[in-house]
Amino acid sequence: MSALFRAGTLGILGGGQLAQMLALAALPLGVRVVVLEPDPQAPARGCAEHIQAPYTDAAGLERLSQCDAVTLEFENVPLSALAQLEGRVPVRPAASLLVRSKHRAREKEALHEAGAGTAPYALINTEADLPGALERVGRHGVLKTAELGYDGKGQVRVAAQADLDPAWTELGRVPCVLEGWVHFAREVSLGVARTAGGELAFGGLIENVHRAGVLRLSVYLPGDPAEAQARELARRVAERWQLEGLMTLEFFELPGGELLVNEVAPRVHNSGHLTQDGGGVSQFEAQVRAALGWPLHDFAPKLPCAMVNILGWVEGQEPDWQAILKLEGARLHLYGKAHKPGRKLGHVNLVAHDEATLWAQLSRLEMLIP
Questions:
Q1: Which one of 5-19, 99-113, 141-155, 294-308 scores highest in mean pLDDT?
Q2: What is the pLDDT of residue 1?
Q3: Where does the pLDDT of residue 269 fall: very low under 50, low under 70, confident under 90, or very high at 90 and above?
Q4: Which of 51, 208, 230, 295 could form a disulfide with 60 if both were Cys (CB 3.0 to 4.6 A apart)?
Q5: Distance in angstroms (rounded) separating the CA atoms of residues 325 and 153
Q6: Which CATH architecture has domain 186-368?
Q7: Is residue 108 within 8 Å of 250, Cβ to Cβ?
Q8: In this structure, CATH architecture of domain 3-91
């Protein structure tokens, strides 16, 4: 019997909103999802089997090992958990890729080996690495922890050599990467999926706008002139890293058009949420297919579309829910998470048949979400 007509099962390490949306994409394909997640209020619990246990729990990992494949919701999964699954069930992306992507220094070295450019950088592992480090990367930089850190956390901007030691102290004097400040024209991202057999599929090039280090807005417009370059860089990295599954590359676009890789996420990405409603295959279905080794399609949207994040609000600034639901072309996605100021609680996708309509509706939507 074909795999598509039996009860396939996908395991996910992590049970947050990305796992929730992966599970929702898997269900129409006849795929049941099992998530291993310690949070009792995990967003994915409403649409997947939820094993509430630590990521290294032996019984939980045993249950995941019975799935057809295991994938990741986030990159900070303990490598020891992947080691316990290795050889028992396909894990896609594999631990070898995660070792690169979750450590900024290793990630940048591996990107250069694949032929992708990055910002200039220097490693800060000990106090002896501080003198002259800022000069080596430029007059301004960003000090980032080598591991962990997301949505603007785990990083400090540095404008003078004298600021470097206090910045390192603020980050706990842990291993860090000092990146030279890039004067970019815009920030963009692109997803790439690859099966174990080497079949590739790409998302569209998406422009991103951040606020206080957190993604605020993503916009996809068909025909972006930088998309071919982004696809080629993504292809090089995916093949060199032997990707199985899906990953997202974040880029800085320089004023002259060159793309530098900023970061790599070995999973679906916040900027790609707009693929849920833009027509065609979503990034979530693409990751499910790639993890299970099923045929792939490019997952760029078919129409102009945008996504606005909904963060936990301060008192008196709650989004206008009724107006959002009334807005033509808007689709509301809430994660079922408890409210907390600054926390990602949901997003709104906006789709239009032409660019002019998209921009007009987007200006209205942004007024409804503080």
A1: 294-308
A2: 46
A3: very high
A4: 51
A5: 32
A6: 2-Layer Sandwich (3.30)
A7: no
A8: 3-Layer(aba) Sandwich (3.40)
Give the angle subtended at the CA of 336 by the CAs of 330 and 337, to the nearest 5°: 115
Alpha helices in the chain (DSSP H): 17-26, 58-64, 79-85, 95-101, 104-113, 133-137, 164-170, 227-240, 283-292, 321-326, 355-368
Indicate the SS3 state at residue 212: coil
Q: Which of 300, 197, 297 is nearest to 242 (CA)?
A: 197
Which CATH class for the 120-180 domain? Answer: alpha beta
Phi then psi dihedrals of residue 248, to 5 deg: -120, 130
Question: Identity (one letter) of the amino acid at 14?
Answer: G
Q: What pLDDT is stored for residue 165 in this prediction? A: 84
Does a cis peptide bond (omega within 30 degrees of 0) precede residue 93? yes
Domains in the chain: boundaries:
3-91, 120-180, 186-368
Q: 145-172 pLDDT, tens per residue?
A: 988 766 557 788 888 887 888 888 888 8
pLDDT of residue 301: 98
CA-to-CA distance for 169 and 344, rounded, in angstroms? 28
The amino acid sitting at 301 is: P
